[in-house]
Automatic annotation (TrEMBL), chain A:
InterPro entries: DUF2849 (IPR021270). This is DUF2849 domain-containing protein. It comes from the Bacteria. Pfam families: DUF2849 (PF11011). It comes from Sphingomonas cavernae.
UniProtKB/TrEMBL annotation, chain B:
It comes from the Bacteria. The keyword 4Fe-4S applies. One of its GO terms (molecular function) is heme binding. Keywords: 4Fe-4S, Heme, Iron, Iron-sulfur, Metal-binding, Oxidoreductase. Residues 119-272, 405-541 form the Nitrite/sulphite reductase 4Fe-4S domain. Belongs to the nitrite and sulfite reductase 4Fe-4S domain family. This is Nitrite/sulfite reductase. Pfam families: NIR_SIR, NIR_SIR_ferr.
Length: 98, 543
């Protein structure tokens, strides 16, 4: 599957396209198929996202898992500071990245 | 320390308001990201892996307590409670909001700080010896010259759009503590026939094409130094390549035309530049130098102190360096606790270091290119109190220049350019060699890790260097041996095929075991490597 990601313009937060809006949680990302570039252009023009790009991901029961480690780190947070990730209380979250 | 005059303050204040307006226009949609990106980069604001990252300039690594407290305040109010000290002697914040950036810059301006020229193809923060003004071995204090260069290079109209970024280091000691010859221009201040001047090296750097800067001028009088630098930059600005980002640094120009031809062109340009009156009048030099006058040292301060506490004694032996003033010493504060993140400090730790500087070091701190902090002017009699305070805050690791004193870039945990993580590798190495006796037995061993070819972690200059690469989507680590950023400058050589994260830690242990087996009396790791070559180490790693 293909999913669309970028950064929230005023805050810089990593965001994922859900099909109708942007979410901080990659689990909510929608498969954009071949529509990603078009959605990216529209959303960037409307200043709802900054620097969007399409990535490959794998569909899992827990939601999409980005194919590349860089995007998995973007999705969760730094692997060296569990307290700064989106799931600070989940001891298995790091395994999802690696 | 230097203090802004009305011109310094007014240009920084004006830049803050200019950027405030640019951010407002970006958020309103009046300008696009393509238009805004170069503007935010000129103010040190990057878009990194998780958020915006702000790189704040620390001119030649020098900070007052007031400035250090402000850095803690920014970490607390606008970031996530910490900052990252970098190999350019700067500090970076990793979780900045665009909408907060103008307010942060306004707060910085109030303590004479900014983020100008911490990005972009301009002359970046001038770096220098962290022991400047205090070192027992220096010819002169390099800070007034670094400050002069800061003023000359700030908003320099000719050099704001160079072919590529440009880094200058200035030192004034035979011992190079600033990796001077791995800069675009390296300046060694020295005396010749009783006259102050500089030896100038041009065309060094790390990155994907590491080069050691050749000597371009054996001596230029101090009164001509700015004109000579202007000439060096002009030749580069004229002939440096703008068609290929990978060949745009001055090192490529000097390498391609040769040091002799580059020198000839610089001399020709210098003859012209010298007629323009760029060099400052003596009165201006004296005005700047006065800010760096020696502090009011206590005469007769004792050199002997009580070292009966064994942990304190170890820390003193490891972390203090000879000072030019009897009864005083230079204190290195390690930001490399075992298992910690190299260069990171919490807001509370930053505040504590500021307090200690205010109380014990004439209100001054330094950031080192090795990502540690220095208190440059400490009375030996105050060391025990300082050590106790640092120890209570997790800042008393006695590992200066040992294998766990690792330089590491932020790597893939934070950086959008990185191919692999650096920090976890640094942590695993430090944990593997956590035993202090083992580290001390290995002696000086500078280990440096970069998460990509851009070499922010100085891997080329490590006695042991590690370069993280992306091998078909998997992190892989190449090992280099034999580099040095010091006065015995050299570039490391790759040992062979790379390793995974655990594999590279194992390989380093084999390297250090080999060193222990082969070393002769008094040899550091890099000395043994240079004597025996790479083969015994390769045999141990891959054999």
């Amino acid at each position: 599957m293909k999913i669309l990601t970028g950064n929230d313009l005023p805050t810089g937060d990593v965001v994922w396209w859900t099909g109708s809006d942007w979410s901080r949680h990659v689990e909510e990302a929608a498969d954009v198929d071949e529509q990603g570039e078009m959605i990216a252009r529209q959303e960037e023009a409307a200043r709802r996202v900054n620097a969007p790009y399409v990535i490959e991901a794998t569909a899992t029961p827990q939601g999409p898992r980005p194919a590349h480690i860089k995007d998995r780190i973007r999705a969760l947070g730094p692997t060296v500071r569990a307290d700064l990730t989106l799931k600070p209380a989940d001891p298995d979250a790091g395994n999802w990245v690696i | 320390m230097y203090q802004y005059d009305q011109y310094d303050q007014s240009i920084v204040d004006a830049r803050v308001e200019e950027f405030r307006d640019q951010v407002k226009r970006r958020l309103s949609g009046a300008i696009t990201e393509d238009q805004f990106k170069p503007l935010r980069l000129m103010n040190g604001l990057y878009l990194q892996l998780h958020a915006y990252m702000l790189r704040v300039a620390v001119p030649y690594g020098t900070l007052s307590s007031r400035q250090m407290h402000l850095l803690a305040h920014i970490a607390r109010k606008y970031d996530r409670g910490y900052g990252h000290f970098t190999t350019r002697q700067n500090i970076q914040y990793n979780w900045i909001k665009l909408e907060d950036a103008p307010d942060i810059l306004a707060e910085l301006a109030k303590v004479e700080m900014h983020a100008i020229q911490t990005s972009g193809n301009c002359i970046r923060n001038i770096s220098s010896d962290q022991y400047a003004g205090a070192a027992a071995d220096e010819v002169t204090d390099p800070r007034p010259w670094a400050e002069l260069m800061r003023q000359w290079s700030t908003f320099h109209p000719e050099f704001s759009y160079l072919p590529r970024k440009f880094k200058i280091a200035v030192i004034a000691s035979p011992e190079d503590r600033a990796a001077m010859r791995l800069h675009d221009i390296g300046i060694e201040l020295l005396e010749k026939d009783g006259k102050l001047g500089a030896k100038v090296f041009v065309g060094g750097g790390m990155g994907r094409t590491p080069m050691i800067a050749p000597e371009i001028k054996d001596f230029v009088g101090a009164e001509d130094l700015l004109s000579y630098l202007e000439a060096c930059l002009r030749v580069y600005n004229r002939y440096g390549r703008r068609d290929n980002i990978y060949k745009a640094r001055i090192k490529i120009l000097v390498h391609e035309i040769g040091a002799d031809e580059y020198r000839r062109q610089v001399e020709e340009e210098f003859a012209h530049v010298k007629t323009l009156g760029i060099d400052p009048p003596v009165a201006e030099l004296e005005r700047i130098s006065a800010f760096f006058a020696a502090p009011a040292y206590e005469a007769g301060a004792p050199d002997e102190i009580d070292l009966s506490d064994p942990d304190f004694r170890i820390w003193v032996q490891a972390q203090t360096v000879a000072h030019k003033q009897p009864g005083y010493t230079i204190v290195n504060i390690s930001l490399k606790p075992i298992g910690g993140i190299p260069g990171d400090a919490s807001a509370d730790q930053i505040d504590l270091m500021a307090d200690l500087a205010e109380k014990y070091s004439f209100d001054e701190l330094r950031v080192t290119h090795a990502q540690n902090i220095v208190l440059p002017n400490v009375k030996k009699a105050d060391l025990y109190a300082i050590w106790q305070a640092l120890d209570a805050a997790g800042l008393a690791t006695p590992n200066l220049d040992l294998i766990s004193d690792i330089i590491a870039c932020p790597g893939l945990d934070y950086c959008s350019l990185a191919n692999a993580r650096s920090i976890p590798v640094a942590q695993k190495i430090a944990e593997r060699f956590a035993d202090l006796d083992r580290q001390r037995d290995l002696g000086e061993l500078k280990l440096k890790i970069s998460g990509c070819i851009n070499a922010c972690g100085h891997h080329h200059a490590g006695h042991i260097g590690i370069l993280g690469v992306d091998r078909k989507g998997t992190e892989n680590y190449q090992l280099l041996l034999g580099g040095s950023g010091a006065e015995d400058v050299s570039l490391g050589k790759i040992t062979g095929p790379g390793f995974d994260e655990d594999g590279v830690v194992d390989a380093i242990e084999k390297v250090t075991d080999t060193y222990k087996a082969l070393r002769e009396d008094g040899e550091r790791f890099v000395d043994t490597y240079r004597r025996v070559g790479i083969e015994p180490f390769k045999e141990a790693i891959y054999g």
